[in-house]
Amino acid sequence: MRVEILRPVMISGEPASAGSFAEVSLADAQMLIGLGKAREAAAAEPEAPKPEPKPEPKAAAEVKPKRTRSTTPKE
User: Fold this and answer.
1) Which of 28, 30, 33 minimizes the C-alpha distance to 13?
2) Whole-model pTM?
């Protein structure tokens, strides 16, 4: 059974670090999961980090000229 190691642990005399994945027997998997040192891993390989979405460029605001009035009276 494939498990993800949550805390450093020895498995069959071999060290396994946190964050790694290991293929172990069903009995070992149940023991590690019961002790809180591992959890069942997904069937597929661990997911690669998802790329962060690129922020969309902000559209330049269209500037409309203000209507100006003449301050001098018309003749």
Assistant:
1) 28
2) 0.54
* Runs of H (alpha helix) within the chain: 26-34
| Cβ-contact 44, 13 below 8 angstroms | no
Dist CA 68 CA 43 (whole Å): 70
Predicted confidence pLDDT, tens digits, the chain (75 residues): 899 999 999 988 889 999 999 999 999 999 999 999 999 987 655 556 777 777 777 766 677 777 766 666 666
Residue 17's alpha-carbon distances to 1, 11, 38, in angstroms, are 17, 10, 11
Give dist(CA 4, CA 44) in Å, integer: 12
∠ CA 47-52-19, nearest 5°, is: 35
